[in-house]
Amino acid sequence: MSRPIHDPTVLRAIAHPLRNRIMGELSAQGPLRAADLSRELGVPANQASFHLRQLAKYGLVEEAVGEGRDRRDRVWRLVDESGVTLDLGELEKQPGGRAAAAVFRSQASAWAHELVDAAYAGERAPDDHRSISDVTVRLSKDEARELSAELAALMDAWTRRTRGRDPERRTYSFLAVLQPHPGGSASD
Question: What is the DSSP letter of 134?
Fold first, then answer.
């Protein structure tokens, strides 16, 4: 089960796009060095290292002791491989929570737009696979929660099954939104 976040300062830390991407790579691949993340994400190693230290400061990543080649070789891992859970409504009740949630929502929205735009762009490399699903289903609130839990469990299982640095694999993004249909009323 993923770790719930209760502190708005931690929410601000993960709202940063590069930090969020670093956490995604650590989830997908497991423990990595700043140099590994630098290559994967196309950023300077010192920038990756800085953001790893920031994530460590907020208790989201830690050094993977024993994974390095020597004491100077720093390898990082997620504190909780299952990731984090956010209840923005609860976080907004904390001091500074409204502002932190606004920053997070803005960043998450921009990232979702980027993912959707890329999915519909049509430009594909020969080794790409893309799938877009837009399904409409009628559910009660409890059924929607059950479906969300089943999808989360399925993605967790795939993440655990494929975690590692296999050169045959690349990192994929999976974005799912389950919500009442926009523009419809509860009685539709």
Answer: -
- Residue 103, SS3 per DSSP: helix
**Other Cβ atoms within 10 Å of 11 Cβ, number:** 24
- Name residues whose C-beta falls within 8 Å of residue 67's C-beta, 6 or more positions apart in sequence: 31, 75, 77
With a CB cutoff of 8 Å and minimum separation 6, the contacts of 114 are none
Which tens digit of pLDDT belongs to each residue from 102-138? 999 999 999 999 989 888 887 777 778 888 888 999 9
CB-based contact 51:22 (threshold 8 Å): yes
The full set of domains in the chain, from first to last, is 3-128 (1.10.10.10)
CB 56 within 8 A of CB 76: yes
Angle at 178 between CA 158 and CA 110, to 5 degrees: 85
